[in-house]
Design goal:
The chain is an alpha/beta fold and about 475 residues long. The chain folds into two domains: about 5-250 and about 465-480, Rossmann fold (3-Layer(aba) Sandwich), CATH 3.40.50.2000; about 275-460, Glycogen Phosphorylase B (Rossmann fold), CATH 3.40.50. It has helices spanning about 20-25, 30-35, 45-55, 95, 105-125, 140-150, 155, 180-185, 190, 205-210, 220-225, 235-240, 275-290, 310-315, 320-325, 335-350, 360-370, 385-395, 405-410, 430-445, 450-460, 465-480; strands at about 5-10, 40-45, 60-65, 70-80, 85-90, 130-135, 160-165, 175, 195, 200, 215, 245, 300-305, 325-335, 355-360, 375, 395-400, 425. Strand 3 and strand 4 (about 70-80) form a beta hairpin. The radius of gyration is 23 Å and the shape is globular. The structure holds adenosine-5'-diphosphate (ADP) and alpha-D-glucopyranose (GLC). Alpha-D-glucopyranose (GLC) binds near residues 20, 24, 382, 386 and 405.
């Protein structure tokens, strides 16, 4: 049965991306739409979208947003339709036409506005979703705002709310004065504890209190976050809500990420032609990045935000040991200064064998997934992870730490049965990581048949959204009492 679903999120492909959330917003809704659902997405109209996509947008009209003390602020609504999914964009020059998406002192005010505006937008469109599917703190206040600010309106009260946690560490915690000033809410919601976190308010926690259902992006992460080790101090409320908490593994966009058609590659290839295909892509990548052209050397790739979460300091501590093996290492990413400077040092120290490309670069990311033999992702925690699934799709074996979605998607090589689609280690310890890298290298150099079998199982791994989209539909139906 068809459902009307509105996705609210801080980013989404094909319009704007900083991480895996954008991959999810750009792919799950498409599959839900293919299943016959009416799926729409609402994003802030960032400068980056204006720069690259303005010509594709249709102006629908202007609404007035009642955002706390700021009465009747105007916002213009734009629309675009791609792959059967309607995107709405909320324009507010002062809040969203800036260089970055997040990280400003007034983020609370900016996203309070976005959330009030998206609810006001429904009245303007006169389109009433069955479900609002909010994602991460940027839309965490939506369930409460919908209940309180539109209390007398049946059309709003009928809407059910699901909130997906993509990363519990990003919580949207702000001062309590935000309640009346930006959200138009009474201090009552602080006093009753429902928005309170430390001595301020938390957008994320509020979602955990008010959403009808909560989901997160892998089964393992859904149980990890009930513990104090992974719970980011939200574990208590999560344990309280555990009956309503679902863990559904992400998929990837298998059309966007397809080595058989990917135009960014030096040569296209598939599960049957990967040997020559990957060899050509490896040579092209080595050439592009100024590495020695060594066809037989194992090339390890990494594409990541360079933050502690991603285990980058396990790598930076062990660069000498890693590079003492017969390997080449390519790292693409930006992030914390300490990690960036360690990788700059690496590039200098191991010219021709190691490259650090500082920046965000979609095209190069595709070529690294295609040209590498191993993909390194030693995350300290990982709600799901998109990169390890992309690398499997490109026949590149992921080497991961067994946490969150990495544990749910990567089956480590078993030397007795030959089974597996990658490599993994359990303890967040740099020695264990190095041990596992050397173990993988041993398979690469000494057990070529075993390696080929692993690559074949990586290609055969189902990384599409098909199964998980059905689970989301079950979740929606449970909320709708269907
Ligand atoms: P997270 O969302 O925590 O950053 P994911 O693995 O879920 O991690 O998703 C990361 C996504 O962002 C992947 O699609 C990856 O290819 C992409 N990505 C990360 N860093 C870069 C970069 N520097 N350049 C291009 N793409 C990147
Ligand atoms: C977050 C998580 C990542 C996940 C992505 C999409 O960025 O860090 O593990 O894959 O969201 O759900």
């Amino acid at each position: 049965m068809s459902r009307k679903i509105l996705f609210a999120a801080g980013e989404g492909l094909p319009y704007i991306k900083t991480g895996g959330l954008a991959d999810v917003i750009g792919s799950l809704p498409k599959v839900l739409a293919e299943h016959g659902n009416d799926v729409r997405i609402v994003l802030p109209l960032y400068q980056g979208i204006i720069d690259r996509h303005y010509g594709e947008l249709e102006r629908l009209g202007r609404i007035r947003v009642q955002s706390g003390w700021l009465i009747n602020q105007p916002a213009t609504i734009y629309q675009a339709v791609t792959d059967g999914v309607t995107y709405y964009f909320i324009e507010h020059q002062g809040y969203f036409e800036r260089g970055a998406l997040y990280g400003y002192v007034d983020d609370g005010e900016r996203f309070a506005f976005y959330q009030r505006a998206l609810l006001d937008m429904l009245g303007f469109l006169d389109w009433w979703p069955d479900i609002i599917h909010s994602n991460d703190w940027q839309s965490g206040m939506v369930p409460l705002l919908c209940h309180v600010c539109f209390g007398g309106d049946e059309r709003y009260q009928r809407i059910k709310h699901v909130f997906t946690i993509h990363n519990l560490a990003f919580q949207g915690n702000f001062g309590v004065e935000m309640l009346p000033s930006c959200l138009g809410l009474d201090y009552y919601y602080f006093d009753n504890g429902s928005t309170r976190f430390d001595n301020g308010i938390s957008f994320l926690k509020t979602a955990l209190v008010y959403a009808d259902k909560i989901s997160t992006v892998s089964p393992t992460y859904s149980s990890e976050i009930l513990t104090s080790q992974y719970g980011e101090r939200m574990d208590e409320i999560l344990r309280y809500r555990r009956e309503d908490l679902w863990g559904i593994t992400n998929g990837i966009d298998t059309v966007e990420w397809d080595p058989q058609t990917d135009r960014r590659l030096a040569k296209n290839y598939g599960p049957k032609t990967w040997k020559t295909g990957k060899a050509a892509n490896k040579a092209a990548l080595q050439k592009e990045l100024g590495l020695e052209i060594l066809p037989d050397t194992c090339l390890i790739g990494m594409v990541s935000r360079l933050t502690e979460q991603k285990g980058v300091y396990l790598i930076s501590q062990k660069l000498r040991e890693i590079m003492s093996a017969n390997v080449q290492l390519v790292i693409l990413g930006t992030g914390e200064e300490a990690a960036e400077s360690a990788f700059r040092w690496m590039e200098n120290e191991y010219r021709g064998r190691a490259v650090y490309y500082q920046g965000y670069n979609e095209d190069l990311a595709h070529r690294i997934y295609a040209g590498s033999d191993l993909f390194l992702m030693p995350s300290l925690y990982e709600p799901c992870g998109i990169s390890q699934m992309v690398s499997m799709r490109y026949g590149t074996l992921p080497l991961v730490r067994e946490t969150g979605g990495l544990r749910d998607t990567v089956r480590p090589f078993n030397q007795y049965t030959g089974d597996g689609n990658g490599f993994s280690f359990y303890t967040a310890n740099a020695d264990d990581m190095v041990y596992t890298i050397n173990y993988a290298l041993k398979q690469y150099y000494d057990n070529p048949e075993g390696w080929d079998a692993l690559v074949s199982s990586a290609f055969a791994t189902d990384v599409s959204w098909e199964k998980s989209a059905l689970l989301y539909e079950q979740l929606y139906d449970q909320m709708l009492g269907r």
